[in-house]
Amino acid sequence: MRPLNYSLQRITIAFFVALLISSFYKMPDPQEVSSKKSLKISATTQPKLSPQARRMYLHRQEQLQVAVAEYFDKAIKKGLIVGAGVSIVKGDSIVLATGYGSRNLRTNKGVDAGTVFRLGSLSKGFAGVLAGKFKSEGLLDWNDKINEYVPELQFKQAHHTPKITLSHILSHTSGAPYHSYTDLIEHGVDLRTIASSFTAVQPVSAPGELYSYQNALFSMVGEATQQVTGNPIANDLKENFFTPLNMSTVSTDHEGLLATENKAIPHRKYRRGWRSIQLNDHYYNAVAAGGINASAADMAQWMRFLLGHNQEVMGAEALAEVFQPQVEIPGRSKYYQRWKGHQASYYAYGWRVHEFVDEQEKAQTMIHHGGSVNNFRNEIALFPEDDLGICVLMNSMTPLASRVIPDLQEIIASIYKENLTEEAVIAAN
Question: Looking at CB atoms within 10 Å, which of 169, 175, 259, 394 has the fewest?
Answer without folding.
Answer: 259
